[in-house]
Write a structure and sequence with these properties.
By secondary structure, this protein is mainly beta. Helix content is 0%, strand content 53%.
């Protein structure tokens, strides 16, 4: 059974940083691309970043480019999302996803 567990969310002031983690199990982790998505209150879920299985290919949506960095440690079956210079608009529940499977989400709240 594919399982993903996201963690690392919290309350941070504007301009601050957080690192999210997504631990995967039940699948071939190093062969699987993993994406981060977020859903802000009243908005649709959007994809913000993803990383290839080997970590050599990454993607960022424009709104987070230059502020967020995705990485992975396949030895620990973990994908990270380092978020810097956070803005109130980044407030959302953050989810990780692989092959259509969703983790439970972690809440990020950025205060102004």
């Amino acid at each position: 059974e594919v399982q993903l567990q996201a963690s690392g969310g919290g309350l941070v002031q504007s301009g601050g940083s957080l690192r999210l983690s997504c631990v995967g199990s039940g699948f071939t982790f190093d062969g699987s691309a993993v994406g981060w998505f977020r859903q802000a209150p009243g908005k649709e879920r959007e994809g913000i970043s993803c990383i290839s299985g080997g970590g050599s290919v990454t993607y960022y949506t424009d709104s987070v480019k230059g502020r967020f960095t995705i990485s992975r440690d396949n030895a620990d079956s973990t994908v990270y999302l380092q978020m810097s210079n956070l803005e109130p608009e980044d407030t959302a529940i953050y989810y990780c996803n692989t092959a259509g499977q969703w983790g439970q989400g972690t809440l990020v709240t950025v205060s102004s």
